[in-house]
């Protein structure tokens, strides 16, 4: 509807006439906003051929490319806009991809003026050097391998980067230099059976192709290349204002430019270059400065004047919110006349002659529209998969035997049947072999980064004692938590009013799109505030994930009900940061916000305290000064505490007294594990914000060697670039002794640079003084040790250097990098390292992981677990961090789950009597007299086989087992019989647990099953007997909770296994052990 309406504008009819006329050139006037993108999309669809687009500005070009993809369909635009700091190799690959796409044809090619003279390969070179494959066609297997080798492809175990190839039986994986994804080619008997694109990270196929072209790296001499613009002499060219573009290209080039049709989009009023002119009579969307009043007035005026109004929003949530806001202001009938879209363009515009308006909601509120980033598939760093994968030599925790080392997998014979077991090594040369049935009792050891655990001794009771001690410690803090929760549930609190129009407008003006977690947290906080019980909610989440926004919304809600808000923070710096954030966010509303700290002059402090007592201050932000006896409130309705763990014992005691009757919201910047969240449900109200804002630009991260000839230039240019846009810079060092060295280096390089220094040995008051000056923009660059890692939030700092980055832990670098990229600006992180040969390739690969996981919350922090461990320590005391390091993160979470469950069932059973009781989980053991494992010749890595075993034996549904089957077949080819057997055993194990069978023994003679204790009195047992009794093909004998099944006509263990699986499938459709008293499903 939108597209059809815009393309119906009179200017498009004239443009259509031009395309099919003899005229070669035309001027387009009054082309505003994203109307430019509609024009390009229109040309592409009309011509069914290449369209060449040249714009002035890189940022505008990228936004226009996004808009064209939205209008014309995904993936029709090829952007040739290299980043300024792109490596030469990456630019060469980009040029090669451009040549390849021109060779393939039918695309929109977009670039900027400064790139149109780049030299690229002509199509015939691509054609002669590439290898074409088609499904069903013959191909010489050996010839294809020879082609890959002779063209510089490198053989690897798995394909991860361009130029890699790998062979596994009939499967050849190859990553060429022109596709976004690598190819998986299956060749059988010299015929191409299938071609699939696959994902580098998961190694899984994504989609089937009927044909593919493998292109090697073609650069250097010997290949014919021409200037880019010459490749489009038979195409239509759209230029964004030739007057301006011509200033950026070499003299004479403009005269050489020959195109089939030339379309000049005039941006500013200039003398006409050509006689032909088409006027689109459009103007940009007005500027509304986040005012819903101005915006609704404009919409009302447009509707009254007979305009068709399209309102484009970022997602269903924003669309729903905007519709609701406008209905309250304009009324239902007017809003019904608007056309809402849950997807947006970058720039709104109004077609004055054709009476059509396209308005973008994100521009109304000055919100950043997220870029549709194309994920780069290159990957040279250590992957998340590798970080989580268990490798021989790694520390592991066995829930029953403690901490040992993984020593790989070993093949052994049990009753003459070959099986695979896990070998673990313990202290004093102890060795433990673990049957695959118990593989889920083994976890990779995860403690704080850098902590080396102590190996346990087999046969001693030290591990059991440590687990008990850990459980006792957990119960102590959990008991206090539950007791406090119970006490508060009997107290009456203030019941806040539901949201009004002002609340909705304020929330809609948030410059980022809400994440699902943030949305959920906001709803939970409001529900708490609107109830008659005093709120006591904890919000946990990484820095920059939007906790403060939730706090601001809660504060505004309280103020609208004439209540006062106190925001308590641990440091003066944080107080002033929050003051700035709250003031900026609520500047359009009559809310008085003040800050109270020791930096505020005495006289002003007394005035603020007096006004607070009179009720003239709505929101007060301050340090522990707020807890002083002279600070009184007229009507305190909401207390917000940031980083409570950083307050002293005395302050915490005062807080405990205030919190009893006042709604309290506590914020914590360290995330906590989901396990902990679910365990404490009903004992503590918590909201977790684990998803980062979607609109945030990824932090461009670069590794720079200090011996690089360009090292000084890169550092100098990066600092100048940040300062020139009014920003500031962090320069982090790993040792205090290096500060003077860096200061001298910076002084010599940039004499006029304003900088200061902070480190851990300075007095807190001195650190505070420097940080506040930096926060107020009094100097440009801060040299610091890693003390800036936590709690510092200065949105104006968007460049960070980390000196000797290889000496920091991954979690530390992740946190340090998170200090930048906190605003709408592009942020940069430079990891400075000694020469590669000094620090080794493993250290480099770890840093490359940071470089390539550029997004906030990219998963790296979750893989490391370091921050979650800190989260537990901050929430429940540093003692808990010690226990985590002693038993490992996963075992700690398991003990925590058990401890809280025991408290709920034993000490607080009355309080939790209505909570659904979960039956205790058990692990079914399945032994079968046939080989069921993954052979080494099929998957040769012990680590990978272990991972597949673990996934299969821990599965909670059939779908996962089928997905693993598909993955194995996809990556490694046809399944061997042993793997088929293993998949069958996994299904039996899963179903046995579902119906209450603890042990299954399958032999050639019979199937023996042992039911869990207590099941004989349950409905399930009778159902089981009924199913077996009705089956004519099975005889069974019952002895206590054991059954022996014999199948008629079965002569092998495999046949018994398959027939028993059929019975289990029938049984599991009728009941599930974990549904309480076994539920019968219709």
TrEMBL record:
<dbReference type="InterPro" id="IPR027417">
    <property type="entry name" value="P-loop_NTPase"/>
</dbReference>
<dbReference type="GO" id="GO:0005524">
    <property type="term" value="F:ATP binding"/>
</dbReference>
<dbReference type="InterPro" id="IPR001650">
    <property type="entry name" value="Helicase_C-like"/>
</dbReference>
<feature type="domain" description="Helicase ATP-binding">
    <location>
        <begin position="528"/>
        <end position="689"/>
    </location>
</feature>
<comment type="function">
    <text>Couples transcription and DNA repair by recognizing RNA polymerase (RNAP) stalled at DNA lesions. Mediates ATP-dependent release of RNAP and its truncated transcript from the DNA, and recruitment of nucleotide excision repair machinery to the damaged site.</text>
</comment>
<keyword id="KW-0963">Cytoplasm</keyword>
<dbReference type="GO" id="GO:0016787">
    <property type="term" value="F:hydrolase activity"/>
</dbReference>
<dbReference type="GO" id="GO:0006355">
    <property type="term" value="P:regulation of DNA-templated transcription"/>
</dbReference>
<dbReference type="GO" id="GO:0000716">
    <property type="term" value="P:transcription-coupled nucleotide-excision repair, DNA damage recognition"/>
</dbReference>
<dbReference type="InterPro" id="IPR041471">
    <property type="entry name" value="UvrB_inter"/>
</dbReference>
<keyword id="KW-0547">Nucleotide-binding</keyword>
<dbReference type="InterPro" id="IPR005118">
    <property type="entry name" value="TRCF_C"/>
</dbReference>
<keyword id="KW-0347">Helicase</keyword>
<keyword id="KW-0378">Hydrolase</keyword>
<dbReference type="Pfam" id="PF03461">
    <property type="entry name" value="TRCF"/>
</dbReference>
<dbReference type="InterPro" id="IPR014001">
    <property type="entry name" value="Helicase_ATP-bd"/>
</dbReference>
<keyword id="KW-0238">DNA-binding</keyword>
<dbReference type="InterPro" id="IPR011545">
    <property type="entry name" value="DEAD/DEAH_box_helicase_dom"/>
</dbReference>
<comment type="similarity">
    <text>In the C-terminal section; belongs to the helicase family. RecG subfamily.</text>
</comment>
<dbReference type="GO" id="GO:0005737">
    <property type="term" value="C:cytoplasm"/>
</dbReference>
<dbReference type="InterPro" id="IPR037235">
    <property type="entry name" value="TRCF-like_C_D7"/>
</dbReference>
<dbReference type="GO" id="GO:0003678">
    <property type="term" value="F:DNA helicase activity"/>
</dbReference>
<feature type="domain" description="Helicase C-terminal">
    <location>
        <begin position="713"/>
        <end position="868"/>
    </location>
</feature>
<dbReference type="Pfam" id="PF00271">
    <property type="entry name" value="Helicase_C"/>
</dbReference>
<dbReference type="Pfam" id="PF02559">
    <property type="entry name" value="CarD_TRCF_RID"/>
</dbReference>
<dbReference type="InterPro" id="IPR003711">
    <property type="entry name" value="CarD-like/TRCF_RID"/>
</dbReference>
<keyword id="KW-0067">ATP-binding</keyword>
<dbReference type="InterPro" id="IPR004576">
    <property type="entry name" value="Mfd"/>
</dbReference>
<keyword id="KW-0234">DNA repair</keyword>
<dbReference type="Pfam" id="PF00270">
    <property type="entry name" value="DEAD"/>
</dbReference>
<keyword id="KW-0227">DNA damage</keyword>
<comment type="similarity">
    <text>In the N-terminal section; belongs to the UvrB family.</text>
</comment>
<dbReference type="InterPro" id="IPR047112">
    <property type="entry name" value="RecG/Mfd"/>
</dbReference>
<protein>
    <recommendedName>
        <fullName>Transcription-repair-coupling factor</fullName>
        <ecNumber>3.6.4.-</ecNumber>
    </recommendedName>
</protein>
<dbReference type="Pfam" id="PF17757">
    <property type="entry name" value="UvrB_inter"/>
</dbReference>
<dbReference type="GO" id="GO:0003684">
    <property type="term" value="F:damaged DNA binding"/>
</dbReference>
<dbReference type="InterPro" id="IPR036101">
    <property type="entry name" value="CarD-like/TRCF_RID_sf"/>
</dbReference>
């Amino acid at each position: 509807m939108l597209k059809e309406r815009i393309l119906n504008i009179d200017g498009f009819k004239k443009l259509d006439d031009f395309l099919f006329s003899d005229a070669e050139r035309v001027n387009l006037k009054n082309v505003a906003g994203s109307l430019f993108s509609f024009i390009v999309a229109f040309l592409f669809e009309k011509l069914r051929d290449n369209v060449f687009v040249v714009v002035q500005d890189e940022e505008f070009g990228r936004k226009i490319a996004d808009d064209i993809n939205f209008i014309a369909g995904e993936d029709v635009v090829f952007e040739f806009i290299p980043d300024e700091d792109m490596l030469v190799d990456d630019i060469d690959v980009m040029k090669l991809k451009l040549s390849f796409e021109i060779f393939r044809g039918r695309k929109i090619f977009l670039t900027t003026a400064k790139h149109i003279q780049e030299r690229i390969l002509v199509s015939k070179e691509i054609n002669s050097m590439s290898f074409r494959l088609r499904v069903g066609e013959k191909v010489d297997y050996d010839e294809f391998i020879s082609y890959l080798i002779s063209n510089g492809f490198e053989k690897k175990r798995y394909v991860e980067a361009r130029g890699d190839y790998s062979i596994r039986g009939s499967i050849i994986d190859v990553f060429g230099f022109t596709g976004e994804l690598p190819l998986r080619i299956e060749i059988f008997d010299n015929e191409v059976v299938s071609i699939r694109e696959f994902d580098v990270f998961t190694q899984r196929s994504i989609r089937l192709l009927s044909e593919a072209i493998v292109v090697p790296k073609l650069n250097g001499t010997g290949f014919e290349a021409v200037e880019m613009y010459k490749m489009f002499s038979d195409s239509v060219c759209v230029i964004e204002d030739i007057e301006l573009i011509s200033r950026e290209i070499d003299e004479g080039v403009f005269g050489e430019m020959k195109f089939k049709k030339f379309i000049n989009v005039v941006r500013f009023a200039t003398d006409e270059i050509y006689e032909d002119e088409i006027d689109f009579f459009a103007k940009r969307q007005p500027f509304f400065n986040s005012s819903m009043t101005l915006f609704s007035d404009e919409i009302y005026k447009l509707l009254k004047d007979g305009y068709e109004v399209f309102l484009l929003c970022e997602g269903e949530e924003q669309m729903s919110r905007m519709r609701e806001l406008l209905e309250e202001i304009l009324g239902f009938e007017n809003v019904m006349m608007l056309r809402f879209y849950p997807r947006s363009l970058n720039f709104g515009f109004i077609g004055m002659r054709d009476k059509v308006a396209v308005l973008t909601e994100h521009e109304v509120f000055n919100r950043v529209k997220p870029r549709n980033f194309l994920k780069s598939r290159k990957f040279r760093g250590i992957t998340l998969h590798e970080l989580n994968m268990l490798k021989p030599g790694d520390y592991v925790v066995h829930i029953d035997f403690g901490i040992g080392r993984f020593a790989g997998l070993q093949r052994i014979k049990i009753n003459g049947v070959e099986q695979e077991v896990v070998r673990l090594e313990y202290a004093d040369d102890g060795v433990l072999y673990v049957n695959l049935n118990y593989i889920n009792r083994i976890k990779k050891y995860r403690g704080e980064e850098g902590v080396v655990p102590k190996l346990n001794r087999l046969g001693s009771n030290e591990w059991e004692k440590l687990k008990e001690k850990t459980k006792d410690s957990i119960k102590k803090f959990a008991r206090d938590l539950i007791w406090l929760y119970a006490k508060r549930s009997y107290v009456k609190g203030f019941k806040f009013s539901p949201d009004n129009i002002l609340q909705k407008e304020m929330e809609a003006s948030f410059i980022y799109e809400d994440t699902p977690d943030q949305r959920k947290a906001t709803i939970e906080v409001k529900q708490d505030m609107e109830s008659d019980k005093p709120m006591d909610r904890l919000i946990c989440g990484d820095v920059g994930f939007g906790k403060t926004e939730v706090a601001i919304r809660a504060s505004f809600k309280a103020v609208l009900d004439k209540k006062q808000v106190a925001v308590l923070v641990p440091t003066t710096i944080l107080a002033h940061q929050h003051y700035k954030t709250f003031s900026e966010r609520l500047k359009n509303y009559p809310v008085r916000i003040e800050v109270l700290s020791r930096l505020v002059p005495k006289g002003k402090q007394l005035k603020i305290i007096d006004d607070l007592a009179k009720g003239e201050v709505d929101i007060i932000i301050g340090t522990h000064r707020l807890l002083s006896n002279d600070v009184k409130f007229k009507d305190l309705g909401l207390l917000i505490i940031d980083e409570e763990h950083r307050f002293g014992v005395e302050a915490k005691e005062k807080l405990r007294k205030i919190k009893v009757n006042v709604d309290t919201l506590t914020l914590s910047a360290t995330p906590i594990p989901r396990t902990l969240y679910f365990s404490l449900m009903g004992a503590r109200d918590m909201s977790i914000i684990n998803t980062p804002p979607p609109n945030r630009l990824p932090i461009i991260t670069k590794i720079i060697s200090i011996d690089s000839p360009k090292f000084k230039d890169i550092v100098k240019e990066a600092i100048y670039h940040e300062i020139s846009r009014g920003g500031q810079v962090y320069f982090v060092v790993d040792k205090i002794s290096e500060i003077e060295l860096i200061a001298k280096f910076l002084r010599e390089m940039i004499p006029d640079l304003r900088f200061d220094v902070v480190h851990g040995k300075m007095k807190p008051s001195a650190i505070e003084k420097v940080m506040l000056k930096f926060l107020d923009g009094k100097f440009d660059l801060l040299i610091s040790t890693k003390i800036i890692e936590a709690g510092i939030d200065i949105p104006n700092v968007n460049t960070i250097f980390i000196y000797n980055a290889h000496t920091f832990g991954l979690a530390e670098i992740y946190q340090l990098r998170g200090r930048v990229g906190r605003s709408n600006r592009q942020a940069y992180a430079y990891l400075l390292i000694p020469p590669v040969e000094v620090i080794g390739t493993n250290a480099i690969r770890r840093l490359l992981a940071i470089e390539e996981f550029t997004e906030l919350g990219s998963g790296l922090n979750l893989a490391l677990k370091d921050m979650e461990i800190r989260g537990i320590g901050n929430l429940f005391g540093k003692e808990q961090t010690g226990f985590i390091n002693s038993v490992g993160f996963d075992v700690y979470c398991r003990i925590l789950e058990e401890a809280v469950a025991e408290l709920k069932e034993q000490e607080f059973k009355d309080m939790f009597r209505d909570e659904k009781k979960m039956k205790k989980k058990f692990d079914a053991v399945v032994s079968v007299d046939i080989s069921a494992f993954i052979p080494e010749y099929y998957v040769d890595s012990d680590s990978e086989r272990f991972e597949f075993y673990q996934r299969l034996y821990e599965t909670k549904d059939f779908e996962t087992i089928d997905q693993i089957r598909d993955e194995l077949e996809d990556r490694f080819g046809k399944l061997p019989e042993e793997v088929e057997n293993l998949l069958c055993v996994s299904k039996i194990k899963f179903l046995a647990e579902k119906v209450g069978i603890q042990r299954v023994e399958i032999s050639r003679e019979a199937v023996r099953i042992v039911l869990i204790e207590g099941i004989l009195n349950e409905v399930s047992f009778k159902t089981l007997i009924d199913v077996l009794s009705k089956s004519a093909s099975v005889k069974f004998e019952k002895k206590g909770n054991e059954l022996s099944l014999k199948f008629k006509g079965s002569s092998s263990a495999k046949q018994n296994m398959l027939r028993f699986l059929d019975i289990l499938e029938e049984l599991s459709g009728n009941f599930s052990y974990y549904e309480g008293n076994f539920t019968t499903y219709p």
